[in-house]
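User: Hi! I have a protein structure encoded as tokens and I'd like to know what sequence might fold into it. I'm fairly new to this, so please keep things simple.
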């Protein structure tokens, strides 16, 4: 009998110890929830009502515990139902274990948060155990980094565009000055500079291939008088007409060069002096038939064929002498 009483007493003591341990465990768990440093919420899945919060939630949101448990999660989450659904789908597609929401605090401030939600069933009803982590500073930093990245990308792209633009402008400038060096800006004829380049790079080769090359030096009669009497605009117009007429009367491979002032030089290939004379007769005829002005446009010219090893400018000098002989003869006839 005494043994039975002792065993019963021992069983009661053990039961009390186990019961106390369970209560102690439950108490410790509640303490963990209440005092945890992260925001913790328990939410009714069906209604969205906030059922339980910890101290960190009070501190973060700026509401009292009683105020929070009287609120619905929709009053805190600023995303619309459509945006919330999109975020749920995005989390599922990206296999994330959290959602990215924007929560409103009691002072109206909006904070970027990550919500880690874990569903559980209690007495046949579904709840969410949610841990809220403030990510506002990280989101702001990420936005600033992205902004800086975009600015850097834009600046790099701008620098590249400016470099390309600079290269294009430099190329255009080079081409422009090259063209100015090659062509006379007023008449479109080749320039004296081009003649020097042509002599260095082309003439020696062309003379081996083409035995007959003639030069014709010409100028416009009474050009100074025309300039002084009718003005430089008329003089420029006459220079242009003469240059265009020369271009029309020669072949594509021949050269029309504005040699200086009102002087033009023709370099003609595969022609004799007699053939040059026929070309110049045609030029004279075309100019005399020009009715643009109240006076006629006439020219004087000299022709010389480059023979053997004669230098180009020696041939031009001889053509120049012949031109002045023609001009002198025309003056004596008048």
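Assistant: Happy to help. Inverse folding works backwards from shape to sequence: for each of the 334 positions I chose a residue that suits the local structure. Here it is:
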């Amino acid at each position: 009998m005494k043994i039975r009483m002792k065993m019963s007493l021992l069983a009661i003591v053990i039961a009390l110890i186990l019961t106390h341990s369970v209560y102690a465990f439950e108490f410790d768990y509640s303490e963990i929830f209440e005092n945890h440093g992260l925001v913790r919420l328990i939410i009714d899945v069906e209604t969205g009502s906030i059922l339980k919060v910890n101290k960190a939630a009070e501190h973060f949101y700026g509401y009292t515990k009683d105020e929070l448990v009287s609120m619905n999660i929709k009053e805190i989450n600023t995303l619309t139902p459509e945006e919330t659904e999109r975020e749920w789908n995005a989390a599922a597609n990206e296999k994330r274990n959290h959602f990215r929401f924007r929560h409103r605090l009691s002072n109206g401030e909006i904070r970027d948060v990550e919500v880690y939600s874990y569903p559980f069933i209690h007495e046949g009803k579904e709840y969410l155990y949610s841990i809220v982590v403030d990510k506002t500073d990280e989101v702001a930093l990420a936005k600033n980094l992205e902004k800086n990245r975009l600015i850097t990308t834009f600046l790099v792209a701008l620098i590249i565009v400016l470099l390309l633009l600079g290269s294009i402008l430099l190329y255009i400038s080079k081409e422009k000055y090259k063209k100015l060096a090659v062509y006379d800006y007023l008449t479109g004829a080749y320039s004296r500079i081009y003649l020097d380049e042509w002599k260095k790079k082309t003439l020696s080769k062309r003379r081996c291939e083409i035995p007959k090359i003639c030069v014709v030096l010409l100028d416009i009669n009474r050009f100074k008088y025309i300039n002084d009497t009718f003005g430089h605009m008329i003089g420029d117009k006459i220079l242009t007409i003469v240059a265009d007429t020369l271009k029309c009367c020669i072949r594509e491979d021949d050269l029309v060069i504005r040699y200086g002032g009102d002087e033009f030089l023709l370099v003609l290939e595969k022609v004799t002096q007699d053939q040059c004379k026929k070309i110049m007769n045609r030029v004279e005829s075309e100019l005399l038939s020009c009715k643009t002005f109240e006076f006629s446009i006439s020219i004087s010219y000299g022709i010389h064929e480059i023979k053997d090893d004669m230098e180009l400018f020696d041939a031009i000098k001889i053509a120049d002498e012949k031109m002045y002989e023609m001009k002198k003869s025309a003056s004596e006839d008048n």
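A useful reference point when you look it over: Residues 192-333 form a domain with the Alpha-Beta Plaits fold (CATH 3.30.70.270). Feel free to ask if any position seems puzzling.
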